[in-house]
UniProtKB/TrEMBL annotation:
The keyword Transcription applies. It comes from Pseudolysinimonas kribbensis. It comes from the Bacteria. PROSITE patterns: HTH_TETR_2. Residues 39-58 bind DNA. This is TetR family transcriptional regulator. Residues 17-76 form the HTH tetR-type domain. Coiled coil: none annotated. The keyword Transcription applies. Keywords: DNA-binding, Transcription, Transcription regulation.
Amino acid sequence: MSSSPAPASPPRRADALRNEELIRRAAIEAFHGRGLDTPLEQIAAAAGVAKGTIYHRFGGRQGLVDAVIGELVGAEMDRIAEVAERTADPWEALAGYIRDRRDLHYREPAAVDALLASRLDSAALRGLAERASRTSDGLIRRARDAGVLRADFTTPDLYHADVGNGLALRRLPLPTPADYERRTRIFLDGLRPPGHHPTGSGLPSS
């Protein structure tokens, strides 16, 4: 005798779906301005729900971060990578990639928090890190093979530089845009091979 099919899961209530979307939109707005450590109480209040609803629907902060990090940061990181990979000149590709990532970190606290996150059990954050590492590997290898990048510069070097920059952005007074751009230019100029005299460092002249 054949077994009866398992009963279908009941459809989710419209109010539950609406609450989830309200929480997602509130989280994106809060994380965008204040970073991923924004108190859940503030997000719940902005969404018009109880804090417990966030735990019920998303399991807590990490589940909420995982639900919104792609829209909040991932899409912009992918755009930056795509622009760099389409750039024909190896130096301009790498310099533009570094510049655009640093610009994202300057204006988006959540991007810095994602960079500094130690929650390796998060598939969403791990995916962001793995895609960034693959892009960095390819751009660095291409620039090094073209002779426009110092031979000893590696993807881990770029990651450590990003972490140092991110910590400074989160823990020290925010520099002016002009100072931040100047420091980016200094960093990029330091990546050139010895004896190289660049005509530009991937940044507009001030």
